[in-house]
From TrEMBL:
Class of enzymatic activity (EC top level): ligase
HAMAP family membership: Arg_tRNA_synth
GO molecular function: arginine-tRNA ligase activity
Name used for this protein in its record: Arginine--tRNA ligase
EC number: 6.1.1.19
Domain Arginyl tRNA synthetase N-terminal: 9-89
Gene: argS
Length: 585
């Protein structure tokens, strides 16, 4: 099927054509709206163009009304106020456009980008040998949703999970394992919970020895040197920690209902060999300079409290490399080897200054060009009910697994109370979909750069702006479609639409435009807001427009058609956000 042009775009084009005819000619030839995209009109409207043409805006609007063709697309166009136009789209145009969307399968008539690129999305970055906590939630959820939206528009996305798998703590862990062999079971013999239990035990034990035994501390420091120099025994043991951690990571991401591909886990260690070259190139190009023995990049507009320049440290005075070196090396790889046209980092907003400096250094070096955009999708903090960073009652960081398990348990209570005809197995299956969906939606319905309060009672509520409300709207539609039996959804363009039908239909048509806007702006909350409004408009339609008891067989079919397309749009939109839509609730 061919993509479907939205009613908004068609109306704008029709108005622009009429306005081009109504405007006086300029420079003896071209009307102000000669261009096919009608950019000036769509951006500024009649009032701005009238000023540009030195014309009376209300008179110009009246000329547009005289010129424009009604009928197939527009039922009525009238002048309002100082020069606004009130436009009423024809019922037939709404139904026919929706029918074209319905005929286009899962894409719903949404076109692909004309010039798709390659976007590398850096998200979901846990640390090896450490538990994932609530602070890891937003990067994973937001990054996954952004990939879903970008992929749907035709962009090719490449995931990169820049896990913390390198650094001084591995000297301590590896040395302890050498001195206590058999403490770490092979990765293929444990599940996620066992893997994390093993890692926690070894981390605590090694830390205790490291803090109390100076000789062990010295051996651990030497082990770091062995790791960085590529000693085989050390690297083999390091790999065991990585493999065991991955077992744990995958178990958590599975609970989050996210697919994490092994080839997209490219941690800090992957850039270890390239960091010396990165430092050399930066110094040779004059982008980085030596200062007090360290290799740093300075920026005129970035200064500290004492008005001294804040440097980006590429290489420490002792020769070690930090985050800047690995991030700059990663940019080189992603642009030069992956041919990325966009780099998207879903990272805590508190690292915004770091990435601002990294991006600027990369531009000075020529690794980021005008053809490559880099954006730090800084996200806010998950807060508790007290408005402070979310902690346990004991003041500890909340384990991500515990948080997800509690969400599923709360959801099970809601599902069990609402759906009396489900088996216990079905209740548990729905609870996972509802609970995880609730956690994701609460995150995604908030602008990423804002903090938000984690309130499970609100998240799993059937009322208000929650994923449960959307999932229930979808399940209600499926129930209606099942009750319809042999009567199938059919669009009847000849029928007049009730106000609630029109409102629902016009909103359904805006799905593609919304997805493109949300993807372009890296704004999943805009798609979430669209879906909530869609569910709200459907609720109003359901209350005001009988479906199975409509006045005629054609009206029953047409309203079933609106129900079906609403369900498909909810399903597709929620899927882009990484949220499932159960058939029954």
């Amino acid at each position: 099927m061919a993509p479907v042009t939205s009613l908004t775009a068609n109306v704008n084009q029709r108005l622009a054509d009429a306005l081009a005819s109504a405007l006086p000619e300029t420079d003896g030839a071209d009307p102000l709206l000669r261009r096919s995209d009608r950019a000036d009109y769509q951006a500024n409207g009649i009032l701005a163009l009238a000023k540009k043409a030195k014309a009376n805006p209300r008179e110009l609007a009246a000329k547009v009304v005289e010129t424009i063709e009604n009928g197939d697309l527009l039922a009525e166009v009238e002048v309002s106020g100082p020069g606004f136009l009130n436009v009423t789209v024809a019922d037939r145009a709404i139904t026919e456009t929706l029918a074209a969307r319905a005929a286009d399968g899962d894409r719903l008539g949404v076109p692909l980008k004309a010039d798709p690129g390659i976007t590398v999305v850096d998200y979901a970055q846990p640390n090896v040998a450490k538990e994932m906590h609530v602070g890891h939630l937003r990067s994973a959820v937001i990054g996954d949703a952004l990939r879903g939206m970008l992929d749907f528009t035709g962009e090719r996305t490449v995931g990169r999970h820049h896990i913390g798998d390198w650094g001084t703590q591995f000297g301590m862990l590896i040395q302890y394992l050498i001195e206590h062999p058999g403490e770490l079971a092979p990765a293929d013999e444990v599940d996620g919970e066992q893997a994390m239990s093993n890692l926690n035990r070894i981390y605590k034990a090694s830390r205790a020895v490291f803090d109390s035994d100076e000789e062990f501390k010295e051996r651990a420091r030497k082990r770091v040197v062995a790791l960085q120099s590529g000693d085989k025994e050390t690297l083999d043991l390091w790999q065991r920690f990585v493999d065991e951690s991955k077992v744990y990571f995958y178990s958590v991401f599975e609970k989050l209902d996210m697919e994490i591909r092994d080839d997209e886990i490219v941690g800090e260690s992957a850039y270890n060999e390239g960091m010396p070259e990165t430092a050399r190139l930066l110094e040779e190009m004059g982008v980085a300079v030596r200062s007090e023995g360290a290799l740093v990049v300075f920026f005129d507009d970035i200064r500290g409290k004492d008005d001294q320049p804040v440097p980006l440290i590429v290489q420490k005075a002792d020769g070690g490399f930090g985050y800047a070196a690995s991030d700059l090396t990663a940019i080189r790889n992603r642009v030069q080897d992956l041919h990325a046209t966009s780099l998207l980092y879903v990272v805590d907003v508190r690292q915004s200054l770091h990435f601002k400096m990294v991006f600027e250094a990369a531009r000075r070096a020529g690794w980021l060009t005008d053809d490559v955009t880099a954006h730090n999708m800084g996200y806010g903090t998950v807060l508790g009910a007290d408005g402070k960073p979310f902690k346990t009652r004991e003041g500890e960081t909340v384990r991500l697994e515990d948080l997800l398990d509690e969400a599923v348990q709360r959801a099970a209570e809601v599902v069990r109370e609402k759906a009396r005809d489900l088996t216990e197995e079905e209740i548990q299956e729905r609870a996972a979909q509802v609970g995880i969906g609730a956690v994701k939606y609460a995150d995604l319905s908030t602008s990423p750069n804002r903090d938000y309060k984690f309130d499970l009672d609100q998240m799993v509520s059937l009322n208000g702006d929650t994923s449960v409300y959307l999932q229930y709207a979808y399940a209600r539609i499926q129930s209606i479609l099942r009750k319809a039996g042999e009567t199938k959804p059919v669009a009847h363009a000849e029928l007049e639409l009730a106000p609630a039908e029109r409102a629902l239909g016009l909103h359904l048509d805006a799905f593609g435009d919304t997805v493109f806007e949300a993807a372009a702006e890296y704004a999943p909350h805009k798609l979430a807001a669209y879906l909530y409004q869609l569910a709200s408009l459907y609720t109003s339609f359901y209350d005001k427009c009988p479906v199975l008891k409509a006045d005629s067989a054609q009206q029953v079919e047409n309203r079933l058609f609106l129900c079906d397309l609403t369900a498909r749009t909810l399903h597709r939109g929620m899927a882009l956000l990484g949220i499932r839509t159960p058939e029954r609730l």
